[in-house]
């Protein structure tokens, strides 16, 4: 007898909760095609279609709805079992770092996982820029950090893969005839590199229109309509809209976010928490800003 894959069930639940394959992909940190392939595998396992078209949209079939109910139940049992078995009596202080752009998306879920598993553990949170957090980790000033910079000198795991997008204010009017006015962060920035490389490869002129020392400054310049910037999808919101290829801007590559600790870490608390978080990656990868819901699933998904 086949065994249902919990990650496939988690993807099914995400599609229903986010009301689209695209929303589920962002929510799970996967590409849309990967989510589609997961559903095809799940249909192969149960031997029935899970979705059916209704006009230009998709909805769950009766078999899909029945499986969804089981999926929620099985995932709840699985997650409760993990939390129960991983409960420990860890006491002390754990210093965790996170970049500004994921401090209100990925970080809360990570912190909730740690707090549930080790309620006696005190958490010391450091929010800053990725390169500085990585240096703090190497100097032993923090115990672990989220970062969008891969470093083989550290022990890390991918938390999620995040789409990188062009952002501007809701009222900004993009003029293709003029150089793209970039809003940049000063110092080393992976987003600046991705933006520069994409624009140069597409032969699109650009100019550094505004430079800020922090993400707060970047958001202020965006909301003032001073230009556009490249950031993770997590930063999109009601007051910031996404520009894309229809606006004459090139597609940007996805970006991995990692959780790092030092290799051969001595502190047993750090190692135990890191191993626990690795075991719960499915939950942590769900920590993304929710996508605006749709009543039915788009047919091209």
Structure overview:
With 301 residues, the protein is of the alpha/beta class. It has three domains: 81 residues, Winged helix-like DNA-binding domain superfamily/Winged helix DNA-binding domain (Arc Repressor Mutant, subunit A), CATH 1.10.10.10; 100 residues, D-Maltodextrin-Binding Protein, domain 2 (3-Layer(aba) Sandwich), CATH 3.40.190.10; 84 residues, Periplasmic binding protein-like II (D-Maltodextrin-Binding Protein, domain 2), CATH 3.40.190. Helix content is 40%, strand content 25%. The protein contains ten helices and 13 strands. The strands form four sheets. It has a five-stranded mixed beta sheet with strand order 4-3-5-12-6, with helices on both faces. A three-stranded antiparallel beta sheet has the order 1-2-13. Helix 1 packs across helix 3, helix 1 packs across helix 4 and helix 2 packs across helix 3. It is flat. The two termini are 30 Å apart. The C terminus is likely disordered.
Structural class comes to alpha/beta
Strand order of the largest sheet: 4-3-5-12-6
Number of helices: 10
What CATH architecture label of the largest domain applies? Answer: 3-Layer(aba) Sandwich
Helix content: 25-40%
CATH class of the largest domain reads: Alpha Beta
Distance between the termini: 30 Å
Number of domains: 3
At CATH level 3, the topology of the largest domain is: D-Maltodextrin-Binding Protein, domain 2
Mean pLDDT: 84
């Amino acid at each position: 007898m086949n065994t249902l894959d919990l990650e496939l069930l988690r993807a099914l639940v995400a599609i229903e909760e986010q009301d689209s394959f695209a929303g589920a992909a962002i929510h799970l940190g996967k590409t849309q095609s990967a989510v589609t392939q997961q559903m095809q595998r799940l249909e192969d396992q149960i031997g029935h279609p899970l979705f059916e078209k209704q006009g230009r949209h998709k909805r769950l079939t009766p078999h899909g709805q029945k499986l969804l109910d089981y999926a929620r139940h099985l995932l709840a049992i699985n997650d409760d079992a993990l939390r129960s078995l991983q409960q420990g009596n860890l006491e002390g202080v754990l210093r965790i770092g996170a970049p500004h752009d994921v401090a209100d998306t990925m970080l809360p879920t990570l912190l909730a996982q740690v707090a549930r598993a080790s309620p006696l553990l005190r958490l010391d949170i450091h929010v800053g820029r990725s390169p500085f957090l990585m240096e703090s980790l190497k100097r032993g000033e923090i115990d672990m950090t989220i970062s969008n910079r891969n470093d083989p000198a550290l022990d890390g795991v991918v938390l999620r893969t995040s789409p990188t997008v062009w952002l501007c204010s809701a009222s900004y009017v993009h003029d293709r005839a003029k150089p793209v006015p970039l809003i940049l962060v000063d110092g080393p920035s992976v987003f600046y590199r991705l933006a520069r490389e994409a624009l140069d490869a597409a032969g699109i002129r650009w100019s550094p229109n505004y430079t800020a020392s922090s993400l707060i400054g970047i958001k202020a310049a965006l909301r003032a309509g001073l230009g556009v910037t490249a950031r993770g999808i997590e930063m999109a919101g009601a007051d910031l809209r996404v520009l894309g290829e229809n606006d004459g801007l090139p597609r940007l590559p996805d970006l991995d976010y990692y959780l790092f600790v030092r290799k051969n870490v001595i502190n047993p608390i750090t190692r135990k928490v890191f191993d626990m978080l690795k075991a719960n990656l499915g939950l942590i990868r769900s920590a993304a800003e929710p996508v605006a819901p749709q009543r039915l699933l788009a047919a091209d998904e």
